[in-house]
Design brief:
Elements: H1 3-36, E1 47-60, E2 70-72, E3 84-97, E4 108-117, E5 120-129, E6 139-144, H2 146-153, H3 159-165, E7 170-172, E8 178-182, E9 192-199, E10 202-209
Antiparallel strand pairs: 1-2, 1-3, 4-5, 5-8, 6-7, 6-9, 9-10
Length: 213
C-alpha cells in the first residue's frame, strides 16, 4: 500500500473506531438510566447505520518535498504546471450492530432492602436475572458509596466508619439467591450513608443509618 493509501486507511479506521466508541458510550448511558429509573427498564440500541463521504487528495511535484498526503473535506482542486494531484472520492456505508450484554445471557438483577432483626438493622439482598432465575452461590460486593453519600446527604464518612458499618465487603448468596448482612450503624453517630451492592454487572444502592439506627 502506498503512503497516501495508508494515511487514508488510517483516517477511515479512526473514524469507524470513534463512531463505535460513541455508540458504546450512548448504550452505557441508556443502560445506567434504566438501572436508576423508577421502572428499572433499560434501553438498547440494536444497530446504527452510517455513511461517510471522504475525499483523499495526494499531490506530487517535481520539487522534493517531505509533506504528507492530506485527507481533504473540501472540493477537489485541479492540476497545473509540474504538479500532479490525485483525488479519490469514496462513500463508506455500513452498519454497527450492538453485541448483546452479557453475551446474550439474561442480565443480573439486584434487590436490596433494609430490615430489622433481633441484633439490629440488616440488609437483605436478592440476586436474580431477567429470566426470573435465582442466582445461587454468587458473590456480591458491598461498599459505602462515599461520593453518592456526600452528594445526597452532605456527609462524608471516614474509613473507620465505613469499615465498622459493613462487617464484610463480600457476601455469598444461598440456595434461594438471598443473603442477609447485619449492620453496625452505631459508628455513624445518627448519620445516613449510601451502601452500594454489585454483582455480575448489576448495581443497586440503599440509604441506611440515620433514624434506622
Amino acid at each position: 500500500m502506498s503512503r497516501g493509501g495508508q494515511i487514508a486507511a488510517d483516517a477511515v479506521r479512526d473514524m469507524l473506531v470513534g463512531l463505535a466508541d460513541a455508540l458504546r458510550t450512548a448504550q452505557d448511558t441508556l443502560s445506567e438510566a434504566g438501572r436508576i429509573s423508577e421502572g428499572g427498564m433499560g434501553y438498547e440500541i440494536p444497530y446504527l447505520d452510517f455513511t461517510f463521504e471522504v475525499e483523499f487528495s495526494e499531490q506530487t511535484s517535481n520539487q522534493p518535498s517531505t509533506a504528507a498526503p492530506i485527507l481533504k473535506l473540501f472540493p477537489r482542486t485541479s492540476s497545473s504546471g509540474g504538479n500532479r494531484e490525485t483525488d479519490i472520492t469514496s462513500r463508506i456505508s455500513g452498519r454497527l450492530v450492538s453485541t448483546p450484554t452479557h453475551g446474550g445471557r439474561p442480565a443480573a438483577l439486584l434487590e436490596m432492602a433494609l430490615v430489622h432483626n433481633a441484633d439490629g438493622p440488616a440488609i437483605d439482598i436478592l440476586l436474580s436475572n431477567t429470566a426470573g432465575e435465582r442466582l445461587t452461590d454468587a458473590f456480591i460486593e458491598l461498599q459505602v458509596d462515599v461520593d453518592m453519600t456526600e452528594r445526597l446527604i452532605g456527609f462524608r464518612p471516614t474509613p473507620t466508619q465505613r469499615l465498622a458499618l459493613l462487617p464484610s465487603q463480600t457476601v455469598l448468596t444461598d440456595e434461594q439467591g438471598y443473603v442477609r448482612l447485619s449492620l453496625s450503624t452505631g459508628s455513624l453517630g445518627g448519620k445516613s450513608v449510601v451502601v452500594k451492592a454489585e454483582a455480575q454487572g448489576a448495581v443497586t444502592r440503599l440509604i441506611v443509618g440515620g433514624s434506622e439506627s
